[in-house]
Amino acid sequence: MHSSFQYKGSEFYMEGVSLTEIAESVGTPFYVYSYEFLRDSFTAYKKAFSEMDTLICYSVKANSNIAVLKAFSDLGAGYDIVSGGELLRVKRAGGDLGKVVFSGVGKTREEMKAAIEAGILFFNVESEEELHVLDDVGKEMGRKAPVALRVNPDINAKTHPYISTGFKKSKFGIEIGRAFEVYKEANKMEGIDVIAIDAHIGSQIFDLTPFVDSVKKLITLADDLVKEGINIQYIDIGGGLGISYKLDDKPPHPSMYADIIMKEFSGKPYKLVLEPGRSLMGNSGMLITKVLYLKEGTEKKFVIVDAAMNDLLRPAFYESYHEILPVVKGSQSKEVVDVVGPICESGDFLAQDRELPKVASGDLLAVLSTGAYGFVMSSNYNTRQRVPEVLVKGDQFSVIRKRETYDELLNLEELPDFL
Ligand SMILES: *Cc1c(COP(=O)(O)O)cnc(C)c1O
Fold this sequence. Notes:
The protein is α/β, with parallel strands linked by helices. The protein is 29% helix and 26% strand. A hairpin with a 2-residue loop joins strand 20 and strand 21.
């Protein structure tokens, strides 16, 4: 574990703050993120790639809290966004709009217009039809939309199928075999300014080979395009570096990743764009939850907690594993339990068949590695309020998103006249 997280005596601390103290102040469940951790993760990337002209565009969808975005922009990050809503968040955070890249297979005309007006760095265009619409929007505005084509390099990233995005059957990007033709077409368009190539092959990737294979293909394509007179300035290699979810997982360090990528780029004129999300935020965050009840089935023991699949979808959605630690170290004796939430779904678990120290009702548990794809995927299923988010820095902490109120949750609904 990073030095930002440690037990002092029997109490689990994030940096200089006891998690029990935060729980007493904001109630449970809640998400909490470590500023030091996110800063160190970003700095590790920055250092690793310091020999190349590199723009690190934090992938906003991993954790889009405005305070998190501000923290990254203060460190010099750009952003990878996937919606007009995320563009608004970047604006709210005071981020540099000139360092924004815009990905996603379903951008609307309104979103395109807003991004052109904002002066983003470039669009990652994912289909020929999208390219034509963007050209049209550009012309309408009397502007040229800066563009990368997101190519699909047909590479198996060897990760969970839901987060593998760079093989032929995936909905993402333009097949690399067709890309050259589409680029030539794009280069003639009045509303388009071709400046980059992009790919993103998936997420939670441990094996670096697929990255190398993808980058080789991108550079070859870029070289061919430059020969054709097309002005490729940036190569955006996406995000996807994996993190440890189990304490003994050994994901590649950004410096190993940087070494193999920079080797491919050596002597090439292109600037590099990266879009990391999970590897910047994933391990910075925890979900803190309280034990409500213990229940003994005939086959299994259940620890029923106040956080549920609506708060943390990953176990139900990806069958993902998250370490769970007690916030106050208590019993030495252990038992095998399922940690489950109050929701009426059998998929509502945070851990299954997990050996944990014995807990009692009222105890607090920390669900680790939930800083990315945690809060952002939460919902109101079962009419549950979305939980607060807290940021810790040194011995300070601050609520960066309040717990939703029932009014906020119910007020959008209206009774029709005909009832
Ligand atoms: C989700 C996503 C990322 C970030 O992926 P991580 O695995 O979180 O690093 C980057 N680029 C695109 C286009 C994405 O969709």
